[in-house]
């Protein structure tokens, strides 16, 4: 036995390979390296369950799994998209020569190394030694990331990047992702640009496109992505981002096509089928939405990589199709999921929506209306977010169609609209949620017009040299509507003109409190969720 490194004997490893002989050989090699805590699994689906609930220092994963819809790339993509693959884990994918192109693409996303079969024990040793040394070099950064101290981790990455310290490219990649997460796209852009000067890496070009988009440069991001996809037509992650950009530009058909391509490239990816289903539900064909969401549920309904908003929309489609039994099954699945995070307001509301739909399907009108009323009472709660608003509108519109009325339904739609109509995109999506109910659509349009008018009024005050009046007017509208756009404008106006406003500090306290409570909102369909309470609870347990 020749130890891989001084700490290897305390390390844990997972070997994922359908071939018992190959799996046994890999396990023997790891034991020769000094690793005694080794878990084996022959199926990608089983590996997903294991990796969702346990941390491993080393993961060796085969690319191909015969008779399974999921590949090794699908597995790792799903875990990465759900933030269930810790940065401290060393991940190595193994494939036959025929799968080299796929493995190379996967390496861009989440791998530390890949091996082409047949490989030697020495080749695996070299890959693991290099990766483990790199992780050790980045230990201070990774420790902060795992503790969710993202600002501290980003600052450490910035120092490593600025000084070109050890493994600065890898530190910059982590740092750029953190700066994006922290809402500082320009800092991330500098890192990705510097990496591209060293080497033309596809993931760095994709990162550059993401920073351009987050900084408001949708046109630049689109050009970068088009160039990248011309050269790398099999890069599923790039289609994910392009879908977001196209949707924000109002080209929903093209956005859906991008997600179709991403799903086609990774047919075993639960997360991507859910994304496609979400987008098709709001902007496309209900049948395509149902097909995508049903496929995702078959692949991994009870997995943490399945965004449970997909189950809400699937249940809604089942209601529309008169499939009461299937709707009941969706509700039962949501009840089980909620048991993992019983304090989550998001999952509680999901369950409430499905429950109301089931009552409505059974013509239990009183129970359905009571459930909707309980959701309506939460409209002004700080944690009632854009996603909850679209679900409630979806529910109200179906009450409307079945001729079950809330006496103040139009008032409630108006409250939702004034809070969440922050842009043309959000207003369009709210309109998609009500499925063409003209009375509700008119309310949404008027609310957006009123919000825009309030914003224009504030701009006029600023142009006239009356910044305080602008802030006061925005604050008044923001307190009444809780609209995040107006809160943002009040904050930005104060920052720009604070020297000219005598009571700027007092006004700032009011604005900051509104910002703290109500700033969090979605501007479009959530094309992924990293804050699923089931995922967060699992991450906390694994630490």
Automatic annotation (TrEMBL):
Pfam families in UniProt: Response_reg
TPR repeat intervals: 236-269
Gene3D superfamilies per UniProt: 3.40.50.2300, Tetratricopeptide repeat domain
Residue span(s) of domain Response regulatory: 12-132
Keywords assigned: Coiled coil, TPR repeat
Coiled-coil blocks: 121-148
Protein name: Response regulator
Natural source organism: Caldimonas mangrovi
């Amino acid at each position: 036995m020749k130890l891989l490194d001084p700490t290897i004997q305390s390390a844990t490893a997972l070997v994922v390979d359908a071939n018992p002989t190959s799996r046994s050989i890999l396990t023997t090699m790891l034991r020769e390296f000094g690793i005694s805590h080794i878990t084996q699994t022959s199926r990608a689906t089983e590996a997903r369950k294991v990796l969702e609930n346990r941390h491993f220092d080393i993961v060796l994963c085969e690319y191909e799994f015969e008779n399974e819809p999921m590949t090794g790339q699908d597995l790792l993509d799903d875990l990465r998209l759900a933030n269930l693959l810790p940065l401290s884990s060393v991940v190595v994918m193994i494939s036959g020569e025929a799968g080299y192109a796929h493995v190379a693409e996967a390496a861009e996303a989440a791998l530390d190394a890949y091996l082409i079969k047949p490989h030697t024990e020495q080749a695996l040793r070299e890959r693991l030694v290099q990766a483990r040394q790199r992780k050790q070099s980045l230990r201070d950064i990774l420790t902060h990331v795992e503790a969710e101290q993202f600002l501290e981790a980003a600052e450490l990455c910035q120092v490593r990047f600025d000084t070109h310290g050890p493994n600065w490219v890898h530190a910059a990649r982590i740092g750029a992702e953190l700066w994006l997460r922290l809402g500082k796209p320009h800092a991330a852009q500098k890192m990705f640009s510097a990496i591209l000067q060293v080497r033309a890496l596809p993931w760095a070009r994709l990162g550059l496109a993401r920073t351009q988009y987050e900084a408001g440069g949708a046109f630049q991001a689109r050009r970068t992505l088009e160039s990248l996809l011309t050269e790398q037509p099999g890069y599923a992650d790039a289609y994910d981002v392009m879908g977001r950009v196209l949707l924000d530009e109002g080209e929903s058909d093209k956005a859906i096509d991008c997600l179709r391509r991403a799903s086609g490239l990774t047919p075993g990816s639960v997360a991507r089928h859910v994304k496609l289903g979400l987008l098709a539900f709001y902007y496309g064909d209900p049948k395509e939405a149902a097909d995508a969401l049903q496929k995702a549920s078959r692949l991994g309904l009870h997995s943490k990589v399945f965004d449970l908003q997909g189950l809400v929309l699937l249940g809604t489609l089942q209601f529309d199709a008169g499939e009461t039994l299937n709707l009941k099954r969706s509700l039962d699945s949501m009840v089980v999921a909620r048991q993992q995070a019983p304090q989550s307001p998001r999952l509680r509301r999901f369950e409430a929506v499905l429950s109301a739909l089931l009552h409505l399907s059974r013509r239990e009108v009183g129970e359905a209306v009571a459930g909707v009323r309980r959701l309506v009472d939460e409209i002004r709660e700080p944690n009632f977010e854009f996603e909850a608003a679209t679900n409630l509108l979806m529910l109200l519109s179906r009450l409307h169609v079945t001729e079950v009325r809330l006496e103040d339904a139009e008032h409630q739609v108006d409250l939702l609209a004034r809070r969440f109509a922050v842009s043309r995109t959000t207003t369009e999506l709210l309109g998609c949620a009500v499925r063409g109910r003209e009375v509700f659509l008119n309310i949404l349009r008027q609310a957006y017009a009123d919000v825009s008018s309030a914003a224009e009024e504030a701009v006029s005050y600023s142009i006239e040299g009356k910044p305080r009046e602008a802030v006061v007017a925005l604050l008044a509208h923001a307190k009444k509507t809780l609209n995040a756009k107006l809160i943002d404008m009040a904050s930005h106006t104060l920052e720009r003109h604070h020297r000219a406003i005598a009571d700027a500090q007092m006004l700032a306290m009011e604005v900051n409190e509104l910002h703290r409570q109500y700033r969090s909102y979605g501007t479009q369909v959530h094309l992924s969720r990293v804050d699923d309470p089931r995922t967060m609870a699992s991450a906390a347990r694994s630490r």
